[in-house]
Design goal:
The complex is a heterodimer of chains A (113) and B (115). Chain A is mainly β and 113 residues long. Helices cover 0% and strands 51% of the residues of chain A. In chain A, strand 7 and strand 8 form a beta hairpin. Chain B is mainly β and 115 residues long. Chain B has no helices and 11 strands. In chain B, the strands form 2 sheets. In chain B, strands 2, 4, 5, 6, 9, 10 and 11 form a 7-stranded mixed beta sheet that branches. In chain B, strands 1-3-8-7 form a 4-stranded antiparallel beta sheet, with no helix packed on it. In chain B, a hairpin with a 3-residue loop joins strand 4 and strand 5. The radius of gyration of chain B is 13 Å and the shape is globular. The chains are: A mainly beta (113), B mainly beta (115). The interface between A and B is medium-sized, with 22 and 23 residues.
């Protein structure tokens, strides 16, 4: 069974600084997708970034980028120039192609002014 | 923008009552999920459908929960009878899984309180 582990229940960062959230996963699949979702206090789940396992290039979306290490089964999220609006729960998720989406337990990120 | 629509947004009910939550997935998506979110357990997968057929409902308490997809525009999650431990936020999500466009879009959730 696929599992996703987020080892940092809570993190904090100063505004304008950079923070990295960790995620590891376990799978025997060779082709799969990885995601980071953001859940602000409004509770809406928002897709932040997506990575296809067959692509070696790390995905980036503006201030958000990932460090995808396939051999190590690691998928960390880097937030640059942190903003107050980045305060939220962040969930790492995995899907093995046509399989169900599995989530980690989440990391609560607080951006301090 | 296309989005997943969930109703109701909030529901307060008494123990023993039936609760029905509805979800309208994004048109054209082939997969619909129901998740439950609590502080203790995080996001738990309850059930999911591929092309309206139930694929996995192993996360649901079978004696009281049921999930159906009567047509491509409607997914329902029912709890009968409801219990206080069912209090949680229930999310519906839809996506085009198994394709190069693989990603999930979530509804705003139904916050359920069972008294």
């Amino acid at each position: 069974a696929q599992t996703v582990t987020q080892s940092q229940p809570e993190m904090s960062v100063q505004e304008a600084e950079t923070v990295t959230l960790s995620c590891t996963y376990d799978t025997s699949e060779s082709n799969y997708y990885l995601f980071w979702y953001k859940q602000p206090p409004s509770r809406q789940m928002i897709l932040v970034i997506r990575q296809e396992a067959y692509k070696q290039q790390n995905a980036t979306e503006n201030r958000f980028s990932v460090n995808f290490q396939k051999a190590a089964k690691s998928f960390s999220l880097k937030i640059s120039d942190s903003q107050l609006g980045d305060t939220a729960m962040y969930f790492c998720a995995f899907t093995g192609g046509s399989e169900k989406l599995v989530f980690g337990k989440g990391t609560k990120l607080t951006v301090n002014p | 923008d296309a989005r997943v629509t969930q109703t109701p947004r909030h529901k307060v009910t008494e123990m023993g009552q039936e609760v029905t939550m509805r979800c309208q997935p994004i048109l054209g998506h082939n997969t619909v999920f129901w998740y439950r979110q609590t502080m203790m357990q995080g996001l738990e997968l309850l059930a999911y459908f591929r092309n309206r057929a139930p694929l996995d409902d192993s996360g649901m308490p079978k004696d009281r929960f049921s999930a159906e997809m009567p047509d491509a525009t409607l997914a329902t999650l029912k709890i009968q009878p409801s219990e206080p431990r069912d209090s949680a936020v229930y999310f519906c999500a839809s996506g085009l899984l198994g394709t190069e466009y693989e990603k999930l879009f979530f509804g705003s959730g139904t916050q359920l309180s069972v008294l």
